[in-house]
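Practice problem: predict the structure.
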Amino acid sequence: LQLVEAGGGSVQPGGSLRLSCAGSGFPLKYFAIGWFRQAPGKEREGVSCISTNGGISKYADSVKGRFTISRDNAKDTVYLQMNSLKPEDTARYFCAADPSGLTGAHDMCIMTPSGYGVNYWGKGALVTVSS
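Answer:
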């Protein structure tokens, strides 16, 4: 499985962006997906995650009410809609895949980077929020 993020860019505070995480090489429907971000000099942190069937989603407190995660398994793509962006949202955003669906775990997702191992990560998309 390969993952590619897209949709990053520069936006003013209060603006919106939609990130996408496209999978290839294996059906994404077998993977729970997490979004993470890393700002310069800071550790990678969990932003949101979604289960294989989309029935479970979680958000970091810092983005709750502003970000929405969704997925379209027919398109092998997961989205992160980011509204009301703040300067502190500036970071490189990564998506990662957890093959939980291969073991029948369709109602779970993980918010910690260590839960995704090292195999299934995208290279990231840069989001800059500045006036």
